Amino acid sequence: MSEQSFTTMTTVDRTPQEVYDAAADPRLWWSETITGVTDEVGGEFEYEVEGIHYSKIRVIELVPGERVVWRVIDARMTFIADETEWNDTEIRFDITARDHGTELRFTHVGLEPDVECYGACANAWTFYIGSSLRQLLERGNGAPNSQPDEVRMKEEVRMKEERAAS
User: Fold this and answer.
1) Is the per-residue pLDDT at 3 higher than 80?
2) Tens digit of pLDDT for each residue in 88-131?
3) Can you name the residues that pair with 12 across neighbouring β-strands?
4) pLDDT of 37 over the 60 cut
5) Alpha carbon 97 to chain centroid, angstroms
6) pLDDT for residue 79
7) Is the confidence at residue 1, as pLDDT, over 60?
8) Which run of H or of E encompasses 164?
9) Contacts of 149 (CB under 8 A, 6+ apart)
10) Of all residues in the chain, what percent are helix, strand and coil, respectively (each to 5)?
């Protein structure tokens, strides 16, 4: 795992199993429109922000109460020159019990400062892990589909399509 890869951590007053269960169900904190299987090794699911970002992701490791690992097997992001930057990257949720709760260490292996999408993607992951997933764990409801940059980009794509149609 690269030391340069994007990593964020949060600690919550929940059990490791509760953190694992939440991380393994990205529809509750990332996107309600995710399709496919997110809770079985070998399962594949798709995430899409229409006209902006598409990813097909395979679940490669599930260790209840400890770890969730996904591999991006196909990705396209229209807002960067190399639309396939996420291909073959790994998304990891490492879960550790602590005296004061459970620590979640999120790492997107391959999302490094020298790749074009680093800034926007790091902002999105910071929101989804530090706000939406944390809120799901603490209050029982996440904020999927709510990351401000994605909302803004979706609106820009919609307006561009409307102008092209007129």
Assistant:
1) no
2) 999 999 999 999 999 999 999 999 999 998 998 999 999 999 99
3) 102
4) yes
5) 22
6) 86
7) no
8) helix 148-165
9) 120, 123, 124
10) 30, 35, 35
CATH code given to domain 6-165: 3.30.530.20
Cα(15)–Cα(22) distance, integer angstroms: 11
Instruction: Indicate the average pLDDT of the chain.
Output: 90
- Domain extent listing, the chain: 6-165
**What's the rounded Cα separation, in Å, for the pair 163 and 2?**
43
Q: For residue range 61-96, what is the model confidence (pLDDT) as tens digits? A: 999 999 999 999 999 998 889 999 999 999 999 999
Q: How many CB atoms lie within 10 A of CB 70?
A: 25
Backbone angles phi, psi at 71, to 5 degrees: -120, 130
Tell me what the mean pLDDT of segment 157-166 comes to.
Answer: 64
Contacts of 88 (CB under 8 A, 6+ apart): 71, 72, 73, 110
The CA–CA distances, whole Å, from 42 to 57, 62, 119, 129, 130 equal 10, 10, 30, 23, 27
Q: Using CA atoms, how far apart are residues 124 and 101, in angstroms rounded to an integer?
A: 25
Q: Is 41 helix (H, G, I), strand (E, B) or coil?
A: coil
Cα-based distances in Å from 87 to 36, 54, 132, 135, 156 = 18, 11, 24, 29, 25
